[in-house]
Amino acid sequence: MSTPRVGIGFDSHRLVPDRPLLLGGVRIEYELGLLGHSDGDVLAHGLIDALLGAAGLGDIGELYPDDDSRFEGTDSMHLLSDTYGRVTALNLRLGNADATLLAGAPRLGPFRDAIRDSISTALHSEPGQVNVKFKTPEALGALESAPFIAAQVIVLLEPAKD
Ligand code: MG
């Protein structure tokens, strides 16, 4: 593809006991983790959908169905790497990615740099091409204390210069 392409992704997962909490491939020690058929990495899933959207490749449910036993408990960063391989095969590269995570708890600010580094490594990019922001639900009643994390992601893909 020869022109820049944008894509958006959104995902949300419930926080439950006895699950790991992984965000962008970074393990965060917390009493709850994200429920999902895979490892539940909501940020990786949002990124995957944003990349697929920008590349015109459909969505995460088509490529990695959650009723397919091959993806049970799978490392979502492997799926992200697989997705990026499909993107680069179309002669596209990451321009930049910007993500917002919505979570009442835990506080995620201390993990910002680690998450950015993990994502940029998976996308063969520089940390400066990836931005991650954190929001807490405010004035949303029951949502403020609801155990979940949501991710919204936008990416810009650019034609590869070779
Ligand atoms: Mg998901």
Descriptive overview:
- This protein has helices spanning 42-55, 60-63, 76-88, 112-122; strands spanning 5-16, 22-23, 26-27, 33-34, 92-103, 130-135, 148-159.
- It is α+β, with helices and mostly antiparallel strands.
- A 5-stranded mixed beta sheet has the order 4-1-7-5-6.
- Helix 1 runs parallel beside helix 3.
- 26% of the residues lie in helices and 30% in strands.
User: What spatial order of strands do you see in the largest sheet?
Assistant: 4-1-7-5-6
How many helical stretches? 4
CA distance, first residue to last residue: 13 Å
Rounded radius of gyration (Å): 15 Å
SSE-based structural type: alpha+beta
Helix proportion: 25-40%
| Residue windows where pLDDT falls under 50 for at least 5 positions | none
Summarize the structure.
The protein is of the alpha+beta class and 162 residues long. Helix content is 26%, strand content 30%. Magnesium ion is lined by residues 11, 13, 36, 42, 45.
